[in-house]
Amino acid sequence: MTDPFNCPADVQRLLSRRASSCGLDVFGGRICRSSSRFCLGVEHGDYNGTELFGVGTDRFIWMAYKLNGSNRIRLFSENFPEDGLIDFEIGRVPEPRSKLLQDTWARFPLGVHYILQREGYPIKKGFDAVLYGNIPGGGMSRSASLTLNLILTCFELNGIGAVDGTTTVDLAQAVENDYIGSPCGKLDQIMILFAREGMGTYYRPATGSIEYIPLGEQAADFRIVSLDTGTIRPGLEKSTYKIRRAECERLVELAGSQFSITCLADVREEHLYRSIVQKYGKKHPQLCRRLKYIYEAQNRFTRMLDAWARGDIETVGQIFRQDGIGLRDDYEISGPELETMCDIARTVPGVLGERMLGGGDKGASGALVRADAVESLQAAIAMGYPRSHPNYADQYAVHVCQTVAGICLLDGLPA
Ligand code: GLA
């Protein structure tokens, strides 16, 4: 989709300066802008088979690019200048999960190239690119945004059309799962690729379908706020995320055949839920707590969708808050800094709900906030958060977001 607006002037300046200093010719090319995402439910539901709902948010990655007439792909990220120029020949990339790549963002373009070639897409044309992003790490899907941006750019430059959204999502997930080694699900990719301004994206895994639900007209004016704790979350493969996934799979393995379930989302009926807890509660209390969160969050999900469609943002907020308590106490996927943000936000009148976001442990929490309460929230965080976590006093940030389209093709840097 094209956007009538261009890339912000300060981002253009940043990209132009960097392109010139690195000798990358992207002038007169195009810019692909990919968004972040905010999940309204069910957080940690994707790999458990639940339905999903979320929106695109206006923190972005901008990538300016142009064909370079060679067989090399050359990129520079303004966010990782210490990694220098990433420069590789088409068809020559390190093997998946190579140790060499662990600490460089190069694993993303290399992974995209590897997966597209593995899947038979004719990637033949070299290009130059410079990137800059302002998506906070941990919680708003920076890596999925980058991966999608790179995939769509490769498609565009190589004249590969007509790849449907579901396939693109699968490719982006494969880059992270197979090449990088991150055990992520599909939530992030779906919520970014399909996002539309002012709409919630509703995904049903049973049919693989996407439906857009506009926010009801009666909705109070509200903002989506990301509360970046300033902590750095290691990859999902190194965090509690991986352990939780394994626990959920373990319960399905134990209970699967007797209770006819293939994922935790299959446990919808109260009777079934109670029978499983009765059977495994004593021996595997922690597995049953994981199930409790998924079961309860899934029950709340339909009410949340209805509330969104009615414009009852107060109820959406309450459910968001209840999900947060389940994620904290039953799923045990939050972290101290994330919870400090929530504890502060919860005391501010006009904050409708708050919880940790995304993979867990570290990164960002989020809040749904009445527009007239945003300033009070900012003041409360500025006062409270650095007192609790002085080590992050210079790193934390509050991002006040709006819903946006996930992917936009913009005019490039002027030639
Ligand atoms: C991370 C993963 C997603 C999803 C969320 C939790 O963002 O990449 O697949 O599991 O955590 O909802």
Please describe what this structure looks like.
The chain has 415 residues and is α+β, with helices and mostly antiparallel strands. The chain has a domain at 8-36 and 58-180 and 404-411: Ribosomal Protein S5, domain 2, CATH 3.30.230.10. The chain has helices at 9-22, 107-118, 142-157, 165-180, 187-193, 240-259, 270-280, 285-310, 313-329, 336-346, 374-388, and strands at 30-41, 52-67, 72-77, 86-89, 127-133, 199-204, 209-214, 222-228, 351-356, 364-370, 397-401, 407-411. Strands 1, 2, 3, 4, 5, 6, 7 and 12 form an eight-stranded mixed β-sheet that branches. The chain has a four-stranded antiparallel β-sheet with strand order 9-10-8-11. A hairpin with an 8-residue loop joins strand 3 and strand 4. Helix 2 (107-118) packs across helix 4 (165-180). It is globular. The mean pLDDT is 96. Bound molecules: alpha-D-galactopyranose. The site of alpha-D-galactopyranose (GLA) has 12 residues, from helix 5.
Write the layout of secondary structure elements.
Layout: H1 9-22, E1 30-41, E2 52-67, E3 72-77, E4 86-89, H2 107-118, E5 127-133, H3 142-157, H4 165-180, H5 187-193, E6 199-204, E7 209-214, E8 222-228, H6 240-259, H7 270-280, H8 285-310, H9 313-329, H10 336-346, E9 351-356, E10 364-370, H11 374-388, E11 397-401, E12 407-411
Parallel strand pairs: 3-5
Antiparallel strand pairs: 1-2, 1-12, 2-5, 2-6, 3-4, 6-7, 8-10, 8-11, 9-10
Helix pairs in contact: 2-3, 2-4, 3-4, 6-8, 7-8, 8-9, 10-11
Bound molecules: alpha-D-galactopyranose.
The site of alpha-D-galactopyranose has 12 residues, from helix 5.
